Amino acid sequence: MKKYAFEYTFEDWQDYIACKGEAKYRASQIAEWIWKKHATSAEEMTNLSKALREKLQEDFDFAYPEILLTQKSKDGTRKFLVKFADGETVEMVLMKYGARLTLCLSTQVGCPLGCTFCATGASGFSRNLTAGEIASQFLLAEKVASRDLSNVVYMGMGEPFLNTEAVLKSIRLLNNEKLRGFGIRHFTISTSGILEGIEALSASSLPVRLAVSLHAADSELRSFLMPVNETNPLPELRKCLLDYQAKTNDRISFEYALFGEVNDTVERARELVHFLRGIHSFVNLIPYNSTGGRYKAPTPEAVLRFKSILETAGFETEIRASMGQDIDAACGQLRRKVAGAEAQTPDSYTRTDVIAHANELHDTANIERYERKAKLIEKKLMAKKTSGGFIDRARKRNAKGTKNAFQKREHAPKANRHKLNAKKSVGK
Ligand code: SAH
Ligand code: SF4
Description:
Blueprint: E1 3-4, H1 10-19, H2 25-35, H3 50-59, E2 60-61, E3 66-72, E4 78-83, E5 89-97, E6 100-104, E7 108-110, H4 119-122, E8 125-128, H5 131-145, E9 151-154, H6 164-175, E10 187-191, H7 195-204, E11 209-213, H8 219-225, H9 234-248, E12 252-258, H10 266-276, E13 281-287, H11 300-312, E14 316-319, H12 325-342, H13 347-355, H14 357-361, H15 367-385, H16 390-427
Parallel strand pairs: 1-2, 6-9, 9-10, 10-11, 11-12, 12-13, 13-14
Antiparallel strand pairs: 3-4, 4-5, 5-6, 7-8
The chain binds S-adenosyl-L-homocysteine (SAH) and iron/sulfur cluster.
S-adenosyl-L-homocysteine binds next to strand 10, strand 12 and helix 14.
């Protein structure tokens, strides 16, 4: 059976070339064709002998995943449904921020973690992607865009740290100077907070950027939103992040999706402040855009109040710019198209559910609307500020709230332990 060429490290190519009795420099030539010149067949590698090209074509599969569907947004965002050799599909998204081009790629087909707001989680898990399958999404995106990527975020379908080995290998492949040579600081891994994975990343000494999907700093609420919190509880996650930061000295990003009246209140913001104290953080607030499910969008006022509490406490915070609003709406069409094409097998329904993820993933609120509101509210705040207005009151409340959260928290871990133990014994 043919090997997938994108799984091969530079050393693997050197071994292969030595095995075939070819000159050493052939390994560099092959690596350059694959990783820098985006060749997808040996025939394209014109500076190799015909015999070597034939041998390569016989031994290796150089094909990128196949693009089944593409959606384009007015803002330049492009969403792709891609299919691997075994028929499994994932989504990847190309986003333009000014001159920068960022790829959001997938690490698993589906995800076993079942976060209650996430379509990927709802659809179950099929399999891990290999390092080559992860890296080939990158190369495919560059080929499609006809330019180099500026950043890559491991934030598509799946939990990267349930597939740590392949994820780290894909980063090493893409980063290796002899292969793609993509700058290590341009990688971001987003995790739901898998302690083992964060530790493995730290041990790998790969200085990529780390993003943690938090969404709640209260144990009970977080376990409800993200069941992974039961096995990777907040106090341990916090400690793990502190250790990570002590070793890497790197700022950690936190993703916090705001679900109306669930985790967007003043109390929740104070809990977050308490959790983040002592961690050099950047907080991305992602107003949830309801599509009629269990959760609803936060009001603009709640978003701004949340942001202002974090900022007052000294945390850098951004309401994350939403990309591809218009194609998010069209994502349903993508699903329908695929369902139509594959409706013969019951399996296909699971697959089409899985691809709904991208809709959810980038389906943040209409930021322009928020920004307009924000300006209005900021104007009002400025007017009030001189008379000890909103910001001062928030600051006072915040200071008091932190104290309250401290008091509350003293009891929380114990209570949660009981809860966890109770769950365990039921399982037995
Ligand atoms: N499994 C990893 C990476 C993939 S999910 C993780 O959880 O971090 C990428 C991001 O999308 C995460 O921050 C996740 O919480 C977020 N996400 C998923 N569904 C969402 C939704 N419906 N609304 C807002 N953010 C969502
Ligand atoms: Fe998995 Fe991340 Fe979705 Fe949770 S948010 S189900 S961890 S992909």
